[in-house]
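Lecture notes, unit on protein representations.

Consider one protein chain, 374 amino acids long.
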Amino acid sequence: MKNYDLYATMGTGFEAVVAKELQNLGYDTTTENGRVFFKGNIEDIIKTNINLRTADRIKILLKEFKALDFETLYDQTFNYDWAQLLPVDAKFPVSGRSVKSKLHSEPDIQSIVKKAIVDKMTQQYHRRGFLPETGNLYHLDIYINKDIARISLDTTGASLFKRGYRVEHGGAPLKENFAAGLLKLTPYNGTHPLIDPFTGSGTLAIEAALIARNIAPGLWRNFAFNNFDWVDNNLYKQEIENAKSKISKNHAPIIASDIDQSILEIAKVNANNAGVLDDIRFKQVAIKDFATDLTNGIIIANPPYGQRLKDKTSARKIYQEMGNVLGNLSSFNQYYLTSDVEFEKYFGKVANKKRKLFNGNIRTDFYQYWHTKK
């Protein structure tokens, strides 16, 4: 079975988390900004797409070369054996990006790469300058950074954060892989209680339950590779069954609370879709009234940010209430994500560590408070 140069993409700040996930799956990795590289065959492409919790995509690196002019870009692209990758009727859009490179016109870069592939395939398939592109989708990408060009094939399709369990609603919940990434920045593994006092649509609690039960995040969806003609669907079925065989049942309590009952109902639907409804205790309660008998666990939350000026005062009042109620739970490690740079002031404690992350386009800090065992 052919081996490929593969890489996972991820949000800024989660490179080490994705690398650790890949290493735990048995891969040797190298890391650069936004990418973690590893090697594998078709089975590995399937396995990583199904099992990675914190990555965005898995791509095959097809070719890497220096490109200072369009002639080189065309020739290097043309010299690849495209017929072994793309069937004659393949639909193959080409997206492109250029950063700090001599070739900077992205539309021209995309056009040249597309033309080179079409010219090579018409030669290989003995066509006369026409390819139907009526078949399955193979999304190609050309990325040029500091004059080094990389051509890759996306094997994922819709981003890996789209697990398939979340129903749409008007709010702005955390993306699933972002929530999983936050959890992976904590010691959480399901053996200690977890509390999310601002659960919203439930993403953090659901991802925690998936981790606790070792449920692969890709069990409910299909991927781009499912439609590649050189991928045996039986391999996909085998990997799905293998992932299902590793699911466990027992774990410590997971508490998900929120002041809004209507959003809790959405969270319950999401949890049910993910198969973890019975693994989470949902409670309607305001943060000022929150109480628990649990000890020695993790509190993790994405409280209101107060992005708009009129909301900032109410958000900071909530932070004070958090400090009054949660700050006293001294046996818990606590983790809070917010864009408010004065969070610590209103919470009433300085964090042991802050980690800069981007929740979508919002620059945030992940405030980490660690319990020191006596």
